[in-house]
Backbone:
């Protein structure tokens, strides 16, 4: 058991069956260290997003094994995985995926309310802090569908951070952001990795973003390049 | 904490798309109100039809039948190799009518399942008015009990039923008979029995049951007058008519009382087979209609609820990605279903009642009816409500459970 390993995949293989059987991921194995800022890059269709979903435990249809924080996630039930994600993984989707009826603040609070470790007041305080961090303090009470695309994406990032997850994963989290906001997000990620030892794994098309991260993993046709 | 969060999400879903919520609620409302209305109407029609059928027919009739055929006296003892020839064998009825009626009536009145007993002396007679002569039935009756069993007083078109109590020579005749013989109230009606006895009656009332066979041939007189006409004593009757609480139980009750009554006891199903057939067919029809409504309304509700859940399926995936468990998802959607079910159910009950009430006031003046018939059974209303709740529950639960059990990515990827 290496306590420094945040995430470890072994012999990860995945197929798509529709419209025809196709091997997306071919025998991938790698480890990610705690506090590491990792970028997954690759061409469209290389399987990087697919791999990220497997790593996030939201896709259970794969072969091989997945361990996060030395907990074997392969073979766990949907409910166990959901509880694990709630406490340990923050995920930022390519599109914001907020609940449109709720205010930004409510959206950010949702994962913490589920976790239930803190009182509602504390959660609200934390959520406001996170929104401040992303420059959204004045949007907190607006409902999510009234925000601009960039603002929504930042709310989604604030939501991913609310439970202080040990791993934050992003599927092109800055894809919808302008360069200024991209810089803000990047700095936040970097800071979280440095100061709190949180592990960051993002899929990105932004070469600058990738170049500035600690480590780059490139996928090509379902295989690791480096 | 988490419960209130789930409720908050459910409430947000319900209020964010009010139109959709309204449509779902309305589909429940519509199903429930239609079920209530159709059942009330069918039951009303059924009850009226039974009432009409039993307007001249009692549930059980006791009378002196021709005895069993025992003309072949040697049947049981004879050697099969012998040839027997009995000529001109006849079944003879030694007694007419029921002699010890008071005793039988006492016995019947003690029983819990019997709601009404009346005695009749029915005589086949000729009615005469000058040159016109009509074959018919003169029915000597017990004024009060006859009315209790057959509600005869409600069929009176002229005169008063209870007046028969005060006129020993009074007669109440059918409307058809009155027309045929050109008779009005206060006219005289001459009656001739098979034995040749003739007596004149004063017409004090005219009734109309809308059953032509009765209206054209029947006349009521007091039972004692009828006994006099036949020179019979005070306990003589030809028929004892019995009504019971539930007419469908007539066969059972017959079986129970027959051993104590030395005469023929006949339930209505035996004397009127066609009535039994129509009665059962009506019941089957009622069940078929109500089942059809249940199924159609059920599918309608299911469809709408299913649609509601499917529209939110992406949010299910997001909630799961954030760590919400299957039971949270199911709870969120069940809360919505139940709210829709209860709201739709309550409005449905109200709407169903209003529709029933409205239809119940549509004029329908045929036979003894004034408006369309309707029933308001609590049973129908509560069944409809429970059914609505169950359907919405299932319709919310199944798709939510399905959605909560798949990988969130499968939904997000599309």
Residues:
């Amino acid at each position: 058991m290496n306590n420094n390993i945040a995430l470890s995949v072994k012999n990860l293989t995945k197929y798509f069956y529709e419209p025809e059987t196709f091997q997306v991921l071919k025998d991938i194995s790698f480890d990610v260290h705690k506090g590491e800022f990792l970028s997954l890059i690759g061409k469209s269709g290389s399987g990087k997003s697919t791999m990220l979903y497997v790593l996030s435990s939201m896709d259970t249809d794969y072969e091989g094994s997945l361990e996060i924080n030395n907990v074997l996630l392969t073979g766990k039930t949907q409910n166990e995985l959901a509880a694990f994600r709630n406490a340990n993984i923050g995920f930022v989707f390519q599109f914001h995926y907020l609940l449109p009826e709720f205010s930004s603040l409510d959206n950010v609070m949702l994962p913490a309310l589920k976790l239930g470790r803190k009182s509602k007041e504390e959660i609200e305080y934390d959520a406001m802090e996170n929104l401040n961090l992303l420059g959204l303090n004045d949007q907190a009470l607006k409902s999510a569908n009234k925000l601009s695309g960039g603002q929504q994406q930042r709310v989604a990032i604030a939501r991913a951070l609310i439970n202080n997850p040990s791993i934050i994963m992003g599927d092109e989290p800055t894809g919808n952001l302008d360069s200024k906001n991209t810089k803000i997000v990047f700095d936040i990620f970097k800071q979280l990795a440095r100061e709190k030892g949180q592990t960051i794994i993002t899929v990105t098309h932004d070469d600058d973003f990738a170049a500035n991260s600690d480590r780059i993993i490139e996928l090509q046709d379902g295989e690791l390049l480096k | 904490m988490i419960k209130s969060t789930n409720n908050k999400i459910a409430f947000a879903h319900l209020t964010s798309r009010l139109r959709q919520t309204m449509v779902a609620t309305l589909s429940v409302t519509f199903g429930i109100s239609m079920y209530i209305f159709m059942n009330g109407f069918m039951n009303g029609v059924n009850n009226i039809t039974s009432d009409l059928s039993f307007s001249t027919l009692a549930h059980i009739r006791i009378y002196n039948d021709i005895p069993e055929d025992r003309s072949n006296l040697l049947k049981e003892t004879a050697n099969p190799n012998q040839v027997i020839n009995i000529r001109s064998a006849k079944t003879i009825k030694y007694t007419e009518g029921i002699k010890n009626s008071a005793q039988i009536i006492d016995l019947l009145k003690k029983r819990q399942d019997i709601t009404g007993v009346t005695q009749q002396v029915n005589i086949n007679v000729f009615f005469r008015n000058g040159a016109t002569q009509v074959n018919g039935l003169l029915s000597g009756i017990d004024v009060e009990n006859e009315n209790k069993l057959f509600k005869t007083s409600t069929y009176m078109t002229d005169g008063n039923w209870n007046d028969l109590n005060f006129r020993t020579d009074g007669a109440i005749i059918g409307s058809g008979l009155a027309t045929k013989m050109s008779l009005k109230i206060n006219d005289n009606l001459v009656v001739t029995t098979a034995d040749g006895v003739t007596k004149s009656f004063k017409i004090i009332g005219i009734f109309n049951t809308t059953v032509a066979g009765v209206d054209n041939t029947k006349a009521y007189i007091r039972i004692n007058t009828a006994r006099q006409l036949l020179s019979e004593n005070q306990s003589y009757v030809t028929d004892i008519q019995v009504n019971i609480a539930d007419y469908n139980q007539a066969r059972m009750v017959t079986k129970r009382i027959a051993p104590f009554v030395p005469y023929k006891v006949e339930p209505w199903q035996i004397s009127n087979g066609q009535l039994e057939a129509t009665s059962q067919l009506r019941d089957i029809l009622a069940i078929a209609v109500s089942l059809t409504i249940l199924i159609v309304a059920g599918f309608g509700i299911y469809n709408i609820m299913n649609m509601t859940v499917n529209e939110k399926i992406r949010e299910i995936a997001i909630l799961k990605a954030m760590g919400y468990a299957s039971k949270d998802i199911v709870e969120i959607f069940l809360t919505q279903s139940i709210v829709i079910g209860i709201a739709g159910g309550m409005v449905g009950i109200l709407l169903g009642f209003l529709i029933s009430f409205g239809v119940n006031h549509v004029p329908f003046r045929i036979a003894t009816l004034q408006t369309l018939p309707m029933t308001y059974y609590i049973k129908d209303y509560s069944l409809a409500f429970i059914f609505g709740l169950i359907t919405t529950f299932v319709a919310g639960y199944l798709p939510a459970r399905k959605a909560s059990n798949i990988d969130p990515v499968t939904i997000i990827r599309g």
Q: What stands out?
A: Strands of chain B lie at 60-63, 114-129, 132-141, 156-159, 170-174, 188-193, 198-207, 218-222, 239-244, 264-267.
